[in-house]
Task: inverse folding
């Protein structure tokens, strides 16, 4: 259906086996034809929604054996923005250079209109101010498209950004000047968004400042703005690459990101002086509000360890859990410590994508969802830094979709004292200084845990 929208006037006929139609509750045959192309697409997407302008900003252009078609309109208020981009009828949900070029052209056009109309505030506009409350469709056809990765979800032709910046500007300038009243209304709408953004930022800075004024936070911490303890989360991630993706994927109001460099110190085997002088642990303690083992003012409601879904990631998670167990045990006892579950695999068949946490789940998805199809494309993520921020948010960080493992710990009260001592012994064996104890434990337990090992 989408391809029919993007190929104006062409009739596309679709058929499927009757058994599949029954199984997936769909029609055996359908015909799609849209005489007005993406105009019909936008109308269908905005059905029952209040649109600001009766004449959307739309157009087509050809350049260097390539072409682009676009349409853009504004909602009156309170609607989620829509941005649908395509290259050669392939959906690009992660955007790319065609989206960037289009957005930058619109931003520059509105700034120029603000300058011409004497509105100096327009110079402080950013892309988000203009594109909130908008519905946009762009369809580009390229002779030699370049995509990021095998899934083709992001266009990366570097020259497109600048080309579209020049192509879109003239039609936009004409469209704005053809109805000055409409142009000024849209500019005022964008400026009101800008002023709201600045006001919220100032309020958040004031709120957060009161919570952090007593100590200096580590520079690499990307803190959240909310000071509501129960709503806030600190994601501890490995390395600047994963930290960069996580910072883009997070909810800035409630989610903070602290990237750590490599494997942190094993506090169970390190000397006290070495632990005190370790920079990574010092940064972690500052971010958490740590003063001493039995004295700290926890700054976040949830502490989430988010490492790669492989052996190295599991090792880093073990080192971090050891730190919390020995230095801040009440964080675990009070239910504040969690483990994120990022996917290890992405499985794609046609337009359907599923994520798997491990090899076992991957095989199960192929069998149950994709019916053992031989055409399933399997991608293994090398690390969190390799995942696009949108996928990281949807699979691992979004409160609506993610799965967290809560780290539990027996208390030291009479009822659970024996269980707690067992944990003490296990931590000492697995993380302590004595390698012979660890070797003996592995020998005695290897068979029982063999299936869980990732070798």
Result:
């Amino acid at each position: 259906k989408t391809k029919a929208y993007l190929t104006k006037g062409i009739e596309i006929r679709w058929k499927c086996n009757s058994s599949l139609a029954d199984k997936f509750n769909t029609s055996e045959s359908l015909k799609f034809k849209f005489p007005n192309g993406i105009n019909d697409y936008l109308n269908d997407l905005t059905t029952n929604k209040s649109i600001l302008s009766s004449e959307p900003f739309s157009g087509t252009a050809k350049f260097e054996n390539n072409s682009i078609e676009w349409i853009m309109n504004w909602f009156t208020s309170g609607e989620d923005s829509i941005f649908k981009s395509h290259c050669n009828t392939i959906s690009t949900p992660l955007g790319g250079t065609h989206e960037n070029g289009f957005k930058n052209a619109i931003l520059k056009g509105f700034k120029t209109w603000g300058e011409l109309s004497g509105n100096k505030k327009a110079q402080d506009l950013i892309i988000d101010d203009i594109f909130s409350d908008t519905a946009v469709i762009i369809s580009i056809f390229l002779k030699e498209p370049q995509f990021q990765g095998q899934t083709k979800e992001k266009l990366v032709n570097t020259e497109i950004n600048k080309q579209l910046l020049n192509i879109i500007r003239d039609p936009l300038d004409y469209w704005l000047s053809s109805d000055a009243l409409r142009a000024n209304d849209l500019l005022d709408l964008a400026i009101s968004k800008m002023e709201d953004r600045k006001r919220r930022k100032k309020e958040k800075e004031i709120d957060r400042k009161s919570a952090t004024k007593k100590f200096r936070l580590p520079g690499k911490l990307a803190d959240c703005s909310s000071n509501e303890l129960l709503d806030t989360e600190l994601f501890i991630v490995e390395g600047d690459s994963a930290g960069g993706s996580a910072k883009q994927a997070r909810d800035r109001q409630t989610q903070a990101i602290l990237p750590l460099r490599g494997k942190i110190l094993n506090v169970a085997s390190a000397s006290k002086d070495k632990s005190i002088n370790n920079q990574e642990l010092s940064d972690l303690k500052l971010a958490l509000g740590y003063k001493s083992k039995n004295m700290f003012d926890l700054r976040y409601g949830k502490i989430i360890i988010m490492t790669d879904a492989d052996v190295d990631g599991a090792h880093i998670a073990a080192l971090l859990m050891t730190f919390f167990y020995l230095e801040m045990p009440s964080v675990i006892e009070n239910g504040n410590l969690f483990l994120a579950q990022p996917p290890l695999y992405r499985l794609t068949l046609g337009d359907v994508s599923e994520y798997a946490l491990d090899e076992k789940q991957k095989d199960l998805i192929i069998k149950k969802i994709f019916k053992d199809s031989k055409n399933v494309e399997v991608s293994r993520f090398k690390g969190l830094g390799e995942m696009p921020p949108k996928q990281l948010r949807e699979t691992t960080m979004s409160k609506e979709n993610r799965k967290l493992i809560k780290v539990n710990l027996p208390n030291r009260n009479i009822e659970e004292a024996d269980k707690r001592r067992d944990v003490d012994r296990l931590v000492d064996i697995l993380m302590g200084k004595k390698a012979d104890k660890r070797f003996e434990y592995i020998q005695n337990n290897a068979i029982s845990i063999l299936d869980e090992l990732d070798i």
In short: The chain has a mean pLDDT of 88.
